[in-house]
UniProtKB/TrEMBL annotation:
This is glutathione transferase. It comes from Eleusine coracana subsp. coracana. The gene is gb05127. The keyword Cytoplasm does not apply. InterPro entries: Glutathione-S-Trfase_C-like, Glutathione-S-Trfase_C_sf, Glutathione_S-Trfase, Glutathione_S-Trfase_N, GST_C, GST_C_Tau, Omega/Tau-like, Thioredoxin-like_sf. Its EC number is 2.5.1.18.
Amino acid sequence: MAAGGELQLLGSWYSPYVIRAKLALELKGLRYKYIEQDLFDKSDLLMRHNPVHKKVPVLIHGGKPVCESLVVVQYVDESWTGTEPSLLPADAHDRAMARFWAAYVDDKFFQPWRALMRSTTDEQRAEAFKRTIPHVETLEGAFLECSKGNGFFNGDTVGLVDITLGSFLLWFMVVDEVAGTTLLDDAKFPGLASWAKRFLTLDVVKRAMPNVEKLLAHYKIFLVKLANAPAGYS
């Protein structure tokens, strides 16, 4: 292992943000120890290594923590620069655009989709889905621009934007199944739909992803709890 020191990853199996960290580590072929965390009973290890946000993922490298999923992905790429694939483009402008679109996923796309994920009635789902679709349209355009005719946002290999959006793909599937929606519709968004299928067939991606049936069961339990929660529950 380059860059010195043992790697540990603190995470929760169902978190798309943890999936991002796993994807980065798997893509670089790095060995690491995964330590599952209960976010409703946070461990001393988690609280000690992420006292600010108290969230996962936390990558511990040689005893030093790195927090926040996009920071973790870029840290892994920068710490193991000699290990392929590179998760960010070589060209400075292309790198800037990759960071821009990764931030777009979290800052713009996620909020309306989160409302869809947390909807418990057909009316709520219809409204949230309507609000989410314009952002999917924007990401379809981003894929066509960034991929430059290749299979991934990063070109012919998986990179930062692929990891950022791809970490949600199984969540898209389980939410679609419950809500009766199709977020990445083949007819409306052929670029993204093809990209998603291609991404999920990769062995490295399969190793980082949770079991979809387990995730679906987890999501259904979450919705029941949400539907019966007191007002103001988050």
